[in-house]
Prior knowledge:
Shape: globular
Largest sheet: 6 strands, mixed
Order of helices and strands: EEEHEEHHHEHEHEEEHEEHHHHHEHEHE
Strand order of the largest sheet: 3-8-7-6-4-5
Helix content: 25-40%
Structural class: alpha/beta
Number of strands: 15
Number of helices: 14
Distance between the termini: 28 Å
Strand content: 15-25%
Oligomer: single chain
Radius of gyration: 21 Å
Amino acid sequence: MKELELKYGCNPNQKPSRIFMQEGELPIEVLNGRPGYINFLDALNSWQLVKELKAATGLAAAASFKHVSPAGAAVGLPLSDTLKQIYFVDGIDIDDSPVACAYARARGADRMSSYGDFIALSDTCDKATALLIKREVSDGVIAPDYTEEALQILREKRKGTYNVIKIDPAYKPNPVETKQCYGVTFEQGRNEINLADPALFENMPTQNKTFSDEAKRDLMIALITLKYTQSNSVCYVKDGQAIGIGAGQQSRIHCTRLAGNKADIWWLRQHPKVMNLPWVEKIRRADRDNTIDIYISDDYEDVLAEGTWQMFFTEKPEPLTREEKKAWIAKNTDVALGSDAFFPFGDNIERAHKSGVTVIAQAGGSVRDDNVIETCDKYGIAMAFTGVRLFHH
């Protein structure tokens, strides 16, 4: 198949719409549903991310995409009991499925942003992964293959309209890519930079020059995630998964703050008060996620006010105070941070330190590199100048 007609483009008024190949056949097959323009943008960008993560780490990988940027990305490391609880994987045995573990992590990092996501899997979608997907609000999934059990489960989702795409893992695109803007055609070489190259981490101008193997893995995950995130972008990673992604900000410090705030929320969801919230029976998953997000925030009264809390809880919880949040966040550590371009000032490092960052990989090359290095040394942070910029538009 050389082309596929779509219902419409980014918006319903943008017609006609299609995807097509100038040469050869489309590398995808739609097994169920009718994916749209944005679905395919999410599918093809997220597939590249997970394919590259798998190649770099040797581990199954998954991504949760929204509007052509990842809300989460992860590799298939086992989940602790705490992560299983905050990712709500109860009732599904995922321990023997690395790809299910990867998706649970990718979806669980930022559940608010992942609502209605498009999913990418590096490996065959199995039953456990399909059961995880079935219970979430999602637009579709792309994978190199599906087991018969998994395909049957997914075909029943959303009254039979769920988008399921199979992609040829051997497909290799043309090394030169084009796009149009306002009737003008742009052309460039594809970004084929190898982010699994250990040489990326050799230039370490900080006093601390030590990256553990786990830190190098997490920094690679951060950089590969950034390669497919709309710029400017910053990514925090811990234990094989992105825990905070700041995408599409005009200011670098705003990226760092946005991603850091998301990382803090991920960590706060593991606070005993949050994990022991007394939920009413059969609360909708979206309502629960939204309530947690508000309970953690400074607007907690919005869900704890009289007449409101009864909709969510069997008894009124005690608020999570600012002092409790600050003390809990201070316990987070060993977080890796990647940036798609250089940090212009040390204020980015100050913000990153507040969210437990101990290792950093960034391009380097700012006129204020000395200030950035000095701030890292102030906190004992190990930082590498990769010399690589990862803008994506």
